[in-house]
Amino acid sequence: MKPSFDHIFMNLANDLAKRSHCVKAQVGAVLTRDTRIISIGYNGPPAHTHNCDEEWPGEGCPRDSKGSCSLALHAEENAILYAVKNGAKLEGATLYTTLSPCLPCARLIFSAGITQVYFDKSYAEYKGLASDEGVDFLNHFGVKAEKFMG
């Protein structure tokens, strides 16, 4: 039986996460439209800056005031930025990501015109938060965001 495109794209997001140089968490993302890949991304510092697993192999990069990485772009940000940099149209796109979007990424996803988000794991569970604020934001403003149920 052939795998669905949803399965293929989520599997690719999980494979991309393995490319991350982050010591704390590896996240991958795939942007698609009409069964075609628009862009891919994984979390990490901007290109040509640092590789956290090489520069700070034990503890990872410096943390910000909320305990998050102070250097990295999130996988969703990298996928969106690469697409925009290369002139891709994101209106109506679907995003597959291994971790549900945080609130800042959700605002970016909404603003980019992405209309559907599938995620594998919960950001709230990972961070110990009461709810997935990014998912709540997206659903509230008409972007269908839901856990991938392969």
UniProtKB/TrEMBL annotation:
Cofactors that this protein relies on: Zn(2+)
Domain CMP/dCMP-type deaminase intervals: 4-132
CDD domains named in the record: deoxycytidylate_deaminase (cd01286)
GO MF, any single term: dCMP deaminase activity
Keyword Aminoacyl-tRNA synthetase attached: no
EC number annotated for this UniProt entry: 3.5.4.12
Keywords: Hydrolase, Metal-binding, Zinc
Pfam families recorded: dCMP_cyt_deam_1 (PF00383)
PROSITE patterns xref list: CYT_DCMP_DEAMINASES_1 (PS00903), CYT_DCMP_DEAMINASES_2 (PS51747)
Keyword field contains Transmembrane: no
Family in the record: Belongs to the cytidine and deoxycytidylate deaminase family.
Xref: PANTHER family: DEOXYCYTIDYLATE DEAMINASE, DEOXYCYTIDYLATE DEAMINASE-RELATED
Name of the molecule in the record: dCMP deaminase
